[in-house]
Amino acid sequence: VQLNEIINHSRERYIDDLRGIGPTLEEVLPQSRILTQQPVLSRDDAIKQAVSMLEKDGVVDRAYATDIIQQLDAFGPYMVISPHIALIHAKHDHVQQPVGFSLIQYENGVHFSHDQYDPVYIVITLATAQPQIHLNALRQLSTLIMDEAAREAIFSGDITAIMQYIKHVSQR
Hints:
Helix content: 40-55%
Strand content: 15-25%
Radius of gyration: 17 Å
Number of helices: 7
Largest sheet: 5 strands, mixed
Mean pLDDT: 91
Distance between the termini: 32 Å
């Protein structure tokens, strides 16, 4: 029993240590990379729009959007991660900074051809050059979209509330 407790304690300490590694969501998702109340676009145009914010900041190059589109064409809408939310991403070949996110809220949604979760109202782009470096921000994003009030703010496009929730979740 004691050995098991030691192993469990060690594992928990390791996870706690990892929790703070890497930038916070607030650091990798600035307000300048959040758009709300956007008109409906095709899936591919929505992807290009989402990636363009990261491209403008030098996080990725233009080919990143093409990679995402090719992945979705090849493997279907697996990037639609929950009802009305897509987390779009591709391999790190076209990523030029350690990590960056963008977020767009579409008023009438974008069709990703997902059987259950269409239309997608929230398109979040994740670009990461190194595995693991994005995990802290991704964990914070996950906490954010699982929080009912935060999710409502995101879906409503209330930029002030969205930024407050991002700031709050980034301090954990």
